[in-house]
Specification:
alpha/beta, Rossmann fold, 2 domains, 15 helices
């Protein structure tokens, strides 16, 4: 990583606007697998990069920074101290914004947006976008305390507001701001064709993983409190009582993985639960799965849920996930306080013949990226 940072530091002397190309600074915080990283990268891949380029400002403790792809597409990565080291973080942003002279800073770190947007305001950046991707939920005392403490400042230094859903917009910016139409919704859109159900990929992937005749339950997400893996493990144990041929695939990494692995071992489920780590073939995995289960404790609009529905994969979501994620018919919501039997019934339901899902056009990344590009161009001329 150090060599990458040194090389990109040397490139900073280049003109920030690259001639007629508008460079937008995207403050994405901690770049891990999925989440905000997936959303911003999807937009970057499909925006008109001959006119607009992204610079990614990421925290130093990021674990999944796609340097090679970003550089190949014409973007740049600037690594700054993690936001927990606030004085160093703010100083690094101040140096960067003054050096690069951005016209637009687009911050994606929810209530923490106040910090980079404050620095952008101090540095005279004319367009400062606060983008919210989440809300708050019980169970994370320190994190929620910080969210509610910072929420009143969400609009102070921003000149434009954005969110992934109306719920996320209302939560951070307020109902009146939403009603006035002052919040732009950028859907967590995807490349729909990439995730369509593929019968051949299903057969090949299941054979490669030794799952030819198994009932496959899937989950894709970071191992962290939000994703609620212990609940999923307990739930899967009950699924096995009704479907002994079942197997659970857990895709992702995260700080809670060791604890979840220990729980699986204690429950005697090591032979039935596969830890696949981070994967670059998730589209094929969706085709290989029989059902996706996301029992999140809280969630905005998960990209995983959109991708899975494009693949026609039945999805069981917790009711802590926004209802806006339901885009196709094979979707069921269950409360985390429901009798587990209701979850099991939904997981084992006969969903009929598998086929690709048809998503609403507003979740097509080409259309959404075009929308974002038009807004950037309008704002940059102000």
């Amino acid at each position: 990583m150090r060599e990458k940072e040194q090389r990109m530091t040397a490139e900073r002397e280049n003109d920030a606007q690259d001639g007629n190309v508008l460079r937008v600074a995207h403050v994405v915080g901690k770049m891990h697998t999925g989440g905000v990283k997936s959303v911003v990268m999807n937009y970057y891949r499909h925006i008109d990069r001959s006119a607009i380029q992204f610079d990614f400002i990421v925290d130093a403790d990021s674990t999944q920074i796609p340097y090679e792809e970003i550089e190949r597409l014409g973007g740049r990565v600037f690594v700054v101290p993690r936001y927990e080291q606030l004085p160093s973080y703010l100083a690094a942003l101040r140096r960067l914004f003054r050096e690069q002279r951005y016209r637009i800073v687009h911050a994606h770190i929810n209530t923490l947006n106040v910090f980079p947007l404050f620095v952008a305001w101090c540095c005279g950046v004319p367009v400062r976008i606060a983008h919210n991707h989440s809300t708050a939920a019980p169970g994370e005392g320190k994190k929620n305390f910080l969210k509610y403490t910072l929420r009143p400042f969400a609009k102070v230094f921003a000149t434009r507001y954005a969110a992934c859903t109306e719920l996320a917009g209302r939560w951070l910016f307020g109902k009146r701001t939403m009603v006035r139409g002052d919040v732009t919704i950028f859907n967590n859109a995807i490349e729909c064709d990439r995730f369509r159900f593929d019968a051949q990929a299903r057969s090949e992937t299941r054979a490669a993983l030794g799952l030819a005749d198994r009932f496959v339950v899937g989950h894709i997400g970071r191992f962290c409190y939000q994703k609620n893996h212990p609940f999923l493990i307990d739930l899967f144990a009950q699924v096995l009582e009704h479907e002994p041929n079942a197997v659970l695939l857990l895709v992702g990494e995260g700080p809670d993985r060791p604890a979840v692995e220990q729980l699986v071992e204690v429950r005697g489920l090591s032979e039935r639960i596969r830890f696949l780590g981070n994967r670059d073939d998730v589209a094929r995995l969706y085709s290989a799965m029989d059902v996706l289960v996301l029992p999140s404790r809280y969630e905005g609009l998960p990209v995983v849920g959109v991708e899975a529905q494009a693949a026609g994969l039945p999805c069981i979501f917790s009711d802590r996930i926004t209802p806006a994620v339901k885009l196709t018919e094979p979707v069921v919501f269950r409360s985390l306080t429901d009798d587990p039997a209701l979850w099991v019934d939904a997981i084992l339901r006969d969903w009929g013949e598998r086929s690709s899902g048809s998503l609403p056009p507003e979740f097509d990344i080409d259309r959404q990226a075009e929308k974002m590009g038009k807004i950037y161009n309008e704002l940059s001329s102000l």
